[in-house]
Amino acid sequence: MSKFALLIGVSEYSEGENPLSALPAALNDVRQLAEVLEDPNIGGFDSVLPLENRSIEDMRSAIANLFADRRADDLVLLYFSGHGITDQQGNFFFSTPKTYKKGNLLFKPSAIPARDVHDEMNDCASDRMVVILDCCHSGAFGDLISRDAGEIKFEPQLGGRGRVVLTASAAIDYSYERSGEELAVYTRYLIEGIRSGAADRDEDGYVSVDELHDYVVEKLEKAAPGMSPQRYVKRDGEKIHLTKAIVADPTRRYRKAVKRYSQDGVIRPAGRRNLEIERQKLGLTIEESAAIEADELRPYREYQQHLKDYEECFREELAFLGGVLDDRSREELNDLIRQRSLKPEDVTAIEQRVIQELGIPEPVVVEPIVEKVVYPKIRFKKVVKPKLQPFTELGASGRLFSSAAKLEMLLIPTGEFMMGSPESEEGRSDAEGPPHLVKVSAFYMGKFPITQAQWAAIAKTKQIDCELKPKPSMFDGADLPVEQVSWNDAIEFCKRLSRETGKCYSLPSEAQWEYACRAGTTTPFHFGETIDAANVNYDGNHTYGSGKEGEYRQKTTPVGYFKDSANKFGLYDMHGNVWEWCADSWHKNYKGAPIDGSVWDASNDSGSKVLRGGSWFNYPRYCRSASRYCGTSDLLDRLIGFRVICPIPFTQDS
Description:
Layout: E1 3-9, H1 25-38, E2 47-52, H2 56-67, E3 75-81, E4 84-86, E5 92-94, E6 101-102, E7 105-106, E8 112-113, H3 114-122, E9 128-134, H4 154-158, E10 163-167, H5 185-196, E11 206-208, H6 209-223, E12 230-233, E13 241-244, H7 250-260, H8 269-282, H9 286-320, H10 327-340, H11 344-358, E14 379-380, E15 391-393, E16 407-412, E17 415-419, E18 436-440, E19 443-446, H12 452-459, H13 487-501, H14 510-518, E20 579-585, E21 608-612, E22 628-632, E23 640-641, E24 645-647
Parallel strand pairs: 1-2, 1-3, 3-9, 9-10, 20-23
Antiparallel strand pairs: 4-5, 5-8, 6-7, 10-12, 11-13, 14-17, 15-16, 16-19, 17-18, 19-24, 20-21, 21-22
Helix pairs in contact: 1-5, 5-6, 6-9, 7-8, 7-9, 9-10, 9-11
């Protein structure tokens, strides 16, 4: 058995009018990781090749050589520190010093596709392959590429039997380095876990890849809670031993004791006495124990310093603007929150305390108590049905839509529901809370997402605010949902549709959308606890709950394609197929959200708009009734479409 490692660092980017930002820590990441892997008492690797700011040809050659001529029991490690990029189809690319964008899109020949690396790995005989990526993904590039609805599919692009892929962040996160520090935060804890041996959780004398991942996750939960490192494992890859650890090392035992007595970042008096006893038993000097304590407590202290810095910045911003934040300030503060990976609840506490101290008036928001959430069954008020029936929209002339493109509108009755998800729901995010009771008045909603035929009929009518392309979609088909339309485009469509019909059409509010999707259910999907690819168009290679793997179609399906999949209100395609725009501006959680089903468009608008329902590309957890995502109002993506609603009465003047 032999161990081989290729460590690639890209810190400088020089191509194009607007080159990618420099990442000074990338080279230090490579050098220090090489040091621990080459150490015969720790890594014991037979070959470690650092590659720093090299050409795309050198990178390709080194990757090919890494996986060539290997035996089944060889350990092969590929590490990359630099910018990671996706294209419009969600394909991941390794950046090179010459990587750049042409217009608003990645110039693909300037980067290395993950698929090429995947092919090299498939040809490799090794049963123990590890890929570690400390790089930012699509969310870090703004206008370079779309955000790919929240995920990059590393498993099909790099995964396989006997291999593990570790990434510093999810696709919508930043993997970041801190100003003035030598290492990016993710790699810092990788190296710390290996060098100290602290990542050897089962104390078997080895640091396995899964143990190292768990160690880094634990550290980042304290130092950078907003980061979400990911692990992608295929069978036979669960227990790959990466490095050695000294089982009887007294410093490891003391480190374990410090971890026990500093759970909240503070060593209390009783804990201090216990640690002193442990120090004496292990024969450590005061200096040695102090260094271990400082190392263990550093993530807590750094995070507290980041909160302090945010409070200082928030006070300065208020003083600069005379006590009232404008949209630009809020957007820039949100960037700071994301860059520092601060917890939303910590930021809220700071802002509320500062506002109270300064005596700045703020709106009073009364929130329901949600400690023990009870999900009641939907309760319908009695309505007079003879005048409120489903209808088919043909336009004022009766000829707006052809019979094949008819717009069917279904009645969604008055009722109330618990919006959001409980903390116990699989795949839940903090954006889905707190759960709160919402009362919704009756309205009409499209039975299906807007189709390409319906879009074309409206696109040819007279412009109101902006032009509409008659055929914007990537996938072509009259009965396919229209996609690659922005929120602004959807608003223009609704305005023209309203003008042509004499009714008041719009996008649904987020509350209306979830109420209509649930149709009286409180489970993750209106089908129940799970979904399957026989009834929903999503990435069937992945499962939810007790669900089974199924077909991954890799494209949209005609609306209503799954004949028996309508919910209790008769709506189709509420889960998967395409994400659907809502009228609301994006808010990071439901604190202060309306409880009457209205559009939430408050002054703390982030500049982005709400998306719901998941798509053909996404894992099933993103297709849940409560799942939320967002995109800028001008975002065009082959994953995104919309459906319309109509109020009761039909017009605002009725």
